[in-house]
Amino acid sequence: MKLMLFLEESAGVQTLRVAHASQHEVVAVLTTLNEEGTKRLGATVQGVAEYLEIPVWPANQVKNQEFAGRVQLESIDLILNVHSLHIVHPEVLSAARVGAFNLHNGPLPSYAGMNAVNWAIMNGQSQHGTTLHWMESGIDTGDVAFETSFDLADDATGLSLSRQCTKDGIELVRHLLATEPEHIPRKPQDLSRRQYYKLELPFSGMIPWDRALLVERFVRACNFYPLPSPWGIPSVEHDGQSIGLMKVVVTDEPCQEEPGKLQFRGQRCFVSTGDFWVELTSLLHRKKLLTPQSAFFSQSPES
Predict the structure, then answer these.
(1) Engineering a disulfide at 130: which of 168, 176, 274, 302 sits with its beta carbon 3.0 to 4.6 angstroms away?
(2) 238 and 168: one domain?
(3) Average pLDDT estimate for 66-85
(4) Last residue of a domain, which of 197, 225, 243?
(5) Which CATH number fits the domain that encloses residue 57?
């Protein structure tokens, strides 16, 4: 088959490598182009595609109705979208002979939309999953082709869960590319169970100090270190410095103090919530991970 790939991020790089190594032909890759003079950490979709001598086009072309003509001109059989957030024009989707597919880092229909891994942690889910689905004009509404699920660890972070979804998702991509077009499954979603998550942050981005368990989940959901967090880093103020919270532990000690206040006990640090004390065990300052001992007692955060 002739493939056209809409790719971003590390998952896009891995997808490109898998597709290029398959029996199919990658006709073109659409991605966000690197700005001249800027540096990007690690391999980029554009860089890998150029190394493989695959044409690279701007990602935003997928929004234009006219691009459907290019898809037809190139005789594209299958479109594959991995972590590209541009809304693809319906005529572009229908221009591929076999169809268009999207890799989503959450189970459908219950985790459609944005930041599914963050919300799964925030909601206290015991399981999560990855979905490869047929694309149609609605966002994350197409029939499911392939899916997988796994237990969500109690200490999962936004980063660890994202990595698991990518790992499983790449296997789904391999499965798709190894399946004869006429045998690709189509399992309709039960849209009565659909939950769609927008870009809005829970609690308007504020730490939910009223409940210790919510604080702990929020911290884990925001933890993508050393990568940027789509929800930002929850932080507390100490001596005029903003200290990021990377890992906290809920104690069984009831708390009667005003929520959000730091308390030091020896070289341990706790913060008050509306029900239980929470111990801070890993912190972030100036992009460096610190223990409470090194953050508060060994030296000033300014030094």
Answers:
(1) 168
(2) no
(3) 97
(4) 197
(5) 3.40.50.170
Domain match, 212 and 266 both: yes
Write the pLDDT tens digit of every residue in 101-128: 999 999 999 999 999 999 999 999 999 9
Number of domains composing the chain? 2
Same domain, 241 and 151: no
Q: Domain residues for 42?
A: 2-197
Q: Is the pTM of this model over 0.85?
A: yes
Which amino acid is it at 200?
Answer: E
Same domain, 211 and 189: no
